[in-house]
Amino acid sequence: MTDLFGTDGVRGRANEYVTAELALSLARAAASRLLPNGGRVIIGRDTRLSGPMLESALGAGFASAGVDVLLAGIIPTPAISFLIKDERADLGAVISASHNEPTDNGIKFFDRNGMKLRVEQEEGIEAAIKHLPSRSSHVGSILPLQAAARRYAAFLTGTIESDDIDLSGLKIIVDCAYGATGAIAPHVLRHFNARVVEMHTAPDGERINRNCGSTHLDTLREAVLSQHADLGIAFDGDGDRVLLISPSGEVIDGDRMMGIAALHMSRVRRLDPQVVVATVMSNMGLEHILTESGLRMLRTPVGDRHVAQTMLKHGAQLGGEQSGHIIFSDHSPTGDGILTAIKLLEISHERGKPLHVLADEIPLYPQARADIPADNPGELMTEESVIAAIKRGEERLAAQGRILVRPSGTQPVVRVLVESSDEALCKSVCQDISSAIEVAR
Questions:
Q1: H-helix or E-strand containing 265?
Q2: Which end of the chain is less enclosed by CB atoms within 10 A, N or C?
Q3: Residues 32, 98, 323, 348: which is the catalytic one?
Q4: Going from the N-terminus, what domains does the chain have, and what CATH number goes with each?
């Protein structure tokens, strides 16, 4: 990780940290390192109020470096990955802070294969910002990308391989978090005849992710229960992650979604190699059920970029994160919330069982989590009192579980995860470590 880039691009408070000046410099630096001879870049954004400002600055930076710019407008992050390949563009950029608060924003880049940049590429961009080249004598064009959302929706519906899939018996409530999926997700689900109830689908940059979407599931859960829906689907603001709510109000998280997909794909001989890529955050229960089924789970650092690169290295078809970034590499090289939702509904159709029944086949260990705000999260990891608390916790858990303490790559917090077959012990160890971090900060 660089000083500027986190686990998912540059991210921070809009107009304070993520400024128009920074966007302009990032574009010029990216062009100098990745497109020294010109080319075409596609820029998309979510609904945040700061999006148009940063879009203008980013576009101007690329154009001043002789790069032609295509503006996709408000569109989910994974759509840019698709559009790069569909347009045969050279680079993609997304202006979004994903699941963060409306006052934040960010910038992330995708290469010509639709994958997020490697760490060394981001390091090169950061180095170039400090020594920006002179402006190009050629000025690139800035034009709208025609029918971007419609083309992406057509791509999504085309990923369904079951000829007879019909969701007309399902009532599905969709929470789009006032973000980038609002105009697309309901349309795609209705294409398969689902009865769709829309929540938070308006493009509202002042309310994106606020008490809604995949990071705030209570409102969707209440709606599913009160309206007797068959399924709730929650996206985050930029649409690269999804979580599901069962008819009884239970959360079907990324681990269970990966488990459902992996077991089915293996059963019908569509998983080759027999590998699933997950992160260090994924539940031990998922790993155990995969192992019992003859599958291997590989763990990576947090971040769907790491998952995607490991999948590419091993030729894996399925991977993702507990938070709901799921990658079906046969269709997309990056996490895609809408794609994940419809592929899981396809699996449910093929199995003849509701998703919540399939989810129950993936037993998960109890987990306790805490996010502790800190000005310098990385420095806290070296505090002796914190190290000692983690060691005590490991001794208490012994072989019954595991501990993961890490600075967040997207927010100024230290994240604590404790996992154990003993729920009470799990919570106690998490509280002890969290208390030690709070005292040390």
A1: helix 254-267
A2: N
A3: 98
A4: 10-146 (3.40.120.10), 153-250 (3.40.120.10), 254-359 (3.40.120.10), 367-440 (3.30.310.50)
